[in-house]
Amino acid sequence: MILTDLVVVFAVAGGVVFAFQHLKLPSVVGLLVSGVVVGPNALGWISETENVHLLAEIGVVVLLFSVGLEFSLTRMFAMSKMMLQIGIPQVVLSVGFTALLTWHVLGDLRFAIFVGMLVAMSSTAVVIKLLADRSELNSLHGRVVLAVLLLQDLLVVLCVLAVPLLSPQGGAADELFSSLGAGLGVVSAILIGGKYLLPRLLYQVVRTRNRELFLIMIFVVCIGTAVLTGAVGLSLALGAFLAGLTLSESEYGHQTLAEVLPFRDTLSSLFFISVGMLLDVHYVFDHPLQICGIVAGLIVLKFLAATVSMVVLQYPLRTTVLSGIALAQIGEFSFVLADSGRKVDLLTPHQYQAFLAAAVVTMVLTPFTMMLAPRLVGLICSWHWLIRKLGMPLNEGVKYESTHLKDHVIIAGFGFNGRNLARVLKDLQIPYLVLDTNPETVRTQLQQGESIHYGDCTRPAVLQHAGIEHAKVYVVAISDPISMRRTVQIARQLNPQVRVVVRTRYQTEINELVKLGADQIVPEDFETSVEIFSRVLRELNIPTATVRGLVEQIRENHYQVFKQSSFDRAPLHLAQEILESIEMESCRLPQDSAAVGKTIGDLRLRSQTGASVITLRRGKQLLTNPGADQQLEPGDTVVLLGNPEQIASAIQLLGAEKPGKRTKSPDSLPVMP
């Protein structure tokens, strides 16, 4: 019974993931281990796995749909260059290296090409899940990996259609072209329909103000597009991703993502459990050396295939290594290809089990290899001779023209926030220097005269060449949390006096960044809250100075007030008391006034009465905050600030005419002379 199976699966998975969490191991590995434990090849608690596999496939569809919602079609087109420059070489090299090696060993070209296709695919579900958990989807290596994975999903249709052609029985070539045309037609239909038809349909649904109807339509769109792409041999997840991608640019993208998120993690976890169920532990124990050899070969080959083109294109060393490691496993769609190959006699049962075991092991190892990736980057960075031989740019060797700068601002990252800051600094003629690791961005901005340089801000030598020892402010505006923490720590070590300002999207990063030495942290969510409450307080006539003081206090305490049960209301009570006790009143000086011809200082108005002159009107001229040497003339209108008794005494001292209209003080009090 499917409900019983689900209870068993989630109960075991919950216990294993809880244990892994205490051991500080990735939850993805815990889910894979759970699948191995309950699967038919271990304890056998779940013998009929088809129902679980079906729900797992739906989970992958929902996962990719939500990823599409977090991106946009514009960003997708922006990644097309990465797809062509990195994705195509990665697939071609993976297929080519594997096919040549297999052909040399076994002498069967058709089988060799088929094995190459199996190896070329990486795991979209595993890698995207890990990148999302590590908040690295928006980093440069995250974008590179996503571009390659999406290209692989697009090429899946060619691999599926090529399987019958590679089988000993052969296949019709015309079927390949007809199916390819159908696939392109469906993809185009999803993009066009999602861009122009779907928002209009959702508008009619939203007008009903029925949340259930909105949720139903979202799942119809998600599953429906997956069914369309699956019908023409494309990946189910690809259709869902494209639907989410087109929907992300509509006004319903944020609400759709909010509705989908509760289902995404639960359903996608079933996928990892189902992959674990595929692993035959008995086969692994019977052939340990063979499996270890295949796994090691696959990881090395996939790593090299992904990094060769990035080395040629002069991508940063850190981005190259992290991208190569993230892509160094076998993908879930390879299981489908392997099953198809087994059915047409391209794989023997022994070969099928060997590939299956090795593929699952690579997926299990991926979370660990990605955890160790930063250390590997540091190790490879020390091999200067190897990097020079490969022709890669050494970040340590980058020479900057602006090393003579002093008291300047260094901006790490030239995204949206970095660009805006650079524009303001340029307008104010404040010296600054930008560091970025995207070679295309650096090349383009240099041509436009921007003060930008190629360099990895996590490398001490790069910050030194940028003049961190003489910089006044260091602004970190990058999306990679690991790099963010690393560069803050290095900057603080190199210059203890530099002011470090960090922009982060996640409040969980605040405490760690404070410990590492950040002076100002700007979490996007909290800054929105600050802006909202400061505007509300101004609308309630709380003095601007008081509001400004509250905002400064909140920022100095690193937004801890938002995590407490209540605010310190003393400043607000004081502001209210001031508003209720202070008034403004105006009076006019006649010809016979004793104050005429004297200066404000001569009158000693404040010391004798307690009231202050805040404004003086003389004809059409308005003098704000007049000084002590300001001489008074007949007909001047004097605006006084103080409590009622103080104002009455001041009017009597001035010998002024009957006062004008009495008003409460404004929310922003002028500075007293």
- Biggest sheet, in brief? 6 strands, parallel
Annotation, overall tally of beta strands: 11
Total of domains: 4
N- and C-termini, Cα separation: 84 Å
Shape: elongated
- How many helix segments? 29
Cα-based radius of gyration, to the nearest Å: 34 Å
What is the CATH topology of the largest domain?
A: Na+/H+ antiporter like fold
Roughly how much helix do the residues carry, as a percent range?
A: 55-70%
Protein structure class? alpha/beta
Topology overview:
Layout: H1 2-22, H2 27-38, H3 50-70, H4 73-78, H5 80-106, H6 109-120, H7 124-133, H8 140-166, H9 173-207, H10 211-231, H11 236-248, H12 253-278, H13 281-286, H14 288-312, H15 317-326, H16 333-343, H17 349-381, H18 384-390, E1 409-412, H19 416-427, E2 432-436, H20 439-447, E3 452-454, H21 460-465, E4 473-476, H22 481-494, E5 499-504, H23 510-516, E6 520-523, H24 524-539, H25 544-556, H26 570-581, E7 583-588, H27 600-603, H28 605-609, E8 612-618, E9 621-624, E10 637-642, H29 644-654, E11 663-664
Parallel strand pairs: 1-2, 1-4, 2-3, 4-5, 5-6
Antiparallel strand pairs: 7-10, 7-11, 8-9, 8-10
